[in-house]
Amino acid sequence: MTGDLDDLDYLDGNAAAGPLSEFFAIDVVSARGRCAHCGRTDALATARVYPNSHGLLLRCPGCTEILLRLVDAGDRVCLDLQGLSFVELRRH
Amino acid sequence: MKTGWNVAEVIEVTQETRTARTLRLRLPGLAGHRAGQHVDVRLSAPDGYTAVRSYSVASASPGDELDLTVEELADGEVSPYLVRQVAVGDQLEVRGPVGGWFVWDPADPSPVQLIAGGSGVVPLMAMLRAHTAAAGSASPGGAAPFRLLYSVRGPDAVYYGAELDDLARLPLVDVTVVYTREAPAGSNEPPRRLDAATLVRSTLPAADNPAVFVCGATAFVETVADWLVQAGHSPARIKTERYGGTGTRP
Amino acid sequence: MGIVSPGFFGRPRRDDPGLPPGQYLTEGFPVLSAGPTPRIDPDEWEFTITTETGQVHRWSWTEFLALKQDDVSTDIHCVTSWSKLGTSWRGVSLDTLFESVESDCEFTMAHSYGGYTTNVPLDDLLGGKAWIAHEFDGEALEPAHGGPARLLVPHLYFWKSAKWVRGLEMLRQDEPGFWESNGYHMYGDPWREERYW
């Protein structure tokens, strides 16, 4: 893959908290997730959100591969978690 | 946290600067929130068209009220409506407050360094206000030193100016404003871009291991986070909130 | 359906007979960015068509530019509701690229540098309806808009016009691509407003 990282059209994973709150009963952006591609494990809030897209994409800040995809189709919301091989929630 | 979309009422509007306004919302059923969180606001046109944007909460009150400070973006679709059209008594749909990562926890006794670029001061203001509230309580965070470094275009663009002046007089709080384009009248410091040396000089040292919160345009946040790491701060102690690509580097 | 915000209309949309339903006209050229922009050196660029038998037809950048070039003026419609009229492109017709290709398949999957995929029926690529475009408005296509070359299938929503395209794979059966597998329509006709499943 010939990606580079000088594009600045992204936000922090924290920006996905609202849309993801429709799926998860807890604040999932604070949870740690493991990238299915490179294995990097960190809070989802540290991933990169590409908001100017056809859907909300969360990408691994290490390898730029996709952790999560969310498409808001109006009357339905579709969530793809293929890129996350593990999620860890902390009970406070 | 309230889940899903809820209807909030605008109960007060305050002009913050020429291009920014603070909307005070009442969200029935809300019982406070965490300092640094944001809400999503959804506007619906009569033909069913909707637009959603995220705005940080500036207030830190325990009840059912929230302040959002919105900057009007030249090309914006939602912000001009919120800054110019919305009036007291209007209703808005909001989701949240959400986001449990970019938040200050009053139970954390660590010293705190806040770094804002322009409108990025909004969630950091919520943290300063929460800190002030915690200072009078048993929360360990209330006794922690709090510093704000605020990079802003000019005196006209400063949010919460009078309140920041008051906060800066508190023993635990320190506020440094860097004016990048226009200095205040009577200042003997010319306007200048924030640079790494100024950043290091006006922030808590890495040796204090402060919790650092950086918020602003994506390029600003990126650059500041790099400088902090070069100055010895642990990346794990730096939390960022990028507002997008509409700003410039420091 | 939530409450209506009085006085809010969103981006100006108009009932223009030249625009598909639900679209608004833009003079700009918005960039949708689903990730970091791939930068592909033309020396490393290639375009392939892979058939069901595994046969690979391959063009280098130089070979691709030596093919017959078409100038195309067309309207484009993005599923995020903007339309842009009378855009000018230069590129190679898929008819030209398929001249030497033997296949019984009716479906294709476009693959891009960076990993993006989108499915398009073969019929929609042939008959002067689709190109591999490498110039926009008389200039080399910028990486942000899909350069060095992108698929151009303007009669479908623009997500089908894959940026940074590197090849087409012939498929016996239709399969969903990147967005089609997560909510977007398999075909994507803007005039029938085929946005989502």
TrEMBL record, chain C:
CDD domains per the UniProt record, alphabetical: arch_bact_SO_family_Moco
InterPro entries xrefs: OxRdtase_Mopterin-bd_dom, OxRdtase_Mopterin-bd_sf
Domain of life: Bacteria
Domain Oxidoreductase molybdopterin-binding, residue spans: 35-179
Region span, Disordered: 1-22
Pfam families linked: Oxidored_molyb (PF00174)
Gene3D superfamilies in the cross-refs: Oxidoreductase, molybdopterin-binding domain
Protein's name according to its UniProt entry: Sulfite oxidase-like oxidoreductase
